[in-house]
Amino acid sequence: MKPYKVVATAFLTASLLLAGCTSEQDALSSKTETKPASATESKTKETNQAAASSEVPEQLQKPLKIASINQFSIGTFSSQYISGVKKQVEKFGGEVQIYNADNDLSKMAAYVETAVNQQVDGILIDHGRADAIAPSVKKAVEAGIPVVAFDSDISIPGVTVIDQDDYSLSWNALRSMAQDLNGKGEIVYVWVGGFTPMERRNVMYEAFKKRYPSIKEIARFGNASQNTALDTQSQMEALLQKYPNKGDIDAVFAPWDEFAKGVTRAIQQAGRDEIKVYGIDLSDEDLQLMQEPNSPWTATAATDPADVGKLQVRFLYQKAAGEETPQIYSVQPHLVEKEDLPNTKVSMSEIGKYVDGWGKSDAATSPWMENLKKANQK
Question: b/e per residue, 187-219, with b = 16+ CB within 10 A?
């Protein structure tokens, strides 16, 4: 393994301080001390275990009706996240209704209103922007409905917001690329604005350009659609024709796995194996693509999307039980590099054998959860 996998550098800290104007930092009060994700996870677990007994709370002795409202459902990362949500709710004996807004924020807000009117027992928010959905989310809070959001810039008292620590995700992948390029080269940046996690990842990219001025961006493109990977592949194919010679492009930074899949396939088909791809996010499909012999996909920074979905549900059930939950929580990301994976195909559930620290989070667990699962075994 490479020694630079750990990204707790002074530069990262400085960059995060520069990013203090983002909405995530606004959610923190001036009295809040920032802690590493692992410390936050441990503290959250200890607090909840001390506050709860192993007896299932009265509020959860009936099946909960949950609304899971998603800004979009594009690609395998989203599908595995939704799978994690469904599995955790099912284990707890609840019911979950999935709402896909197809990247329409007004529709997403309307779905939140619908969930409030239906008097659901809890609402899960996936992505979405505060300027569009915050008024509807406030109505849910005022109605006494627990809300937990994922990868959103919402900052409403009583709403827990979890994320993948997008700043660390981005810097993990970028620093790996800089080291492999020895601090010099020509790169392509695939990116689209308008999404909270993408905006946060871009903060680190802008810092990266200042840190490594000899790494030059020669092209930038990207859009989000129902066929993002295919659209990205077509755009990359056109770019490869514009830059046909070896050495024209050294690497591609694609901070979304749908982007990374598209550029990887374009590079493979063009036979341009000298170009390396560095991405963010991971799924079983992504792993298979990374492990192909001629795959240029070199590294990706990621968390387990299914585990994120399960974590979000656990926080929601803690809220429904009346337990204290944090205002914000960041999941610890990891860098997965192709060279660390075996020659045989592996799945997301097996990565822990090859990547230090990869595993299921035990945050947001309460003693009564095991009894709740036992009571709902089928």
Answer: bbbbbbeebbbbbbbbbbbebbeebbeebeeeb
pLDDT tens-digit series, residues 193-237: 988 999 999 999 999 999 999 999 999 999 988 899 999 999 999
Measured between alpha carbons, how far is residue 71 from residues 66, 190, 365, 373 in Å? Answer: 16, 21, 27, 29
β-pair type (334-337, 297-302)? antiparallel
pTM of this prediction?
Answer: 0.79
Q: Which fold has domain 166-302?
A: Rossmann fold (3.40.50)
pLDDT tens digits for 19-64? 433 333 333 333 333 333 433 444 444 444 444 579 999 999 999 9
Domain spans, the chain: 35-164+305-335+359-375, 166-302
Of 311, 315, 353, the C-alpha closest to 332 is 311
Joined together, the tokens standing for residue 151 give 């990868």
Provide DSSP, 263-302.
Answer: HHHHHHHHT-TTSEEEEE---HHHHHHHTSTT--EEEEEE
With H, G, I as helix, E, B as strand and everything else as coil, classify residue 177: helix
- Please state which of the four CATH numbers 3.60.60.20, 3.90.960.10, 3.40.50.2300, 2.160.20.10 is assigned to the domain occupying 35-164+305-335+359-375: 3.40.50.2300
